[in-house]
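ok so for the tutorial part 2 we go from a plain amino acid sequence to predicted structure tokens. step 1 is just haveing the sequence, like this:
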Amino acid sequence: MAIAADRNPTHFLRRVVQADLAVSGAAGALQLLAAGPLERLTAIDAGLLRGSGLVLMGWIAFLGWALSRPAITAPLARTMIGVNIAWVAASVLVWLEGAIAPNALGVAYLLAQAAVVAVFAELQFFGLRRQQRG
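step 2 — the prediction. this is what the tokens look like for a chain of 134 residues:
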């Protein structure tokens, strides 16, 4: 994996954030541009998909801004980690609390995206620790 191969602690965190930006951008674009077909496939309301797609556009703007800084500081990294953890929690809670009633494919979609976001949070935490030690 290219992210893990980088030995520079500062570069590792930056590469993780770049990957988060790319994946979040792709997911946000998909949810904005294909909300109707996704709703038919997943039984997740198209309005909710579009709304979360818009939230992801804001997220990628924040990540892009963070990447434009000379360094990703500890407070910035902690903010990224916290937002990613909140996304995972919200994703699961809207389903468990009955706010949405996805079909089996919708549950898989929901849990898969939550798992990917959880991995980004973990990698960002790991990258922050590496950066602080390096």
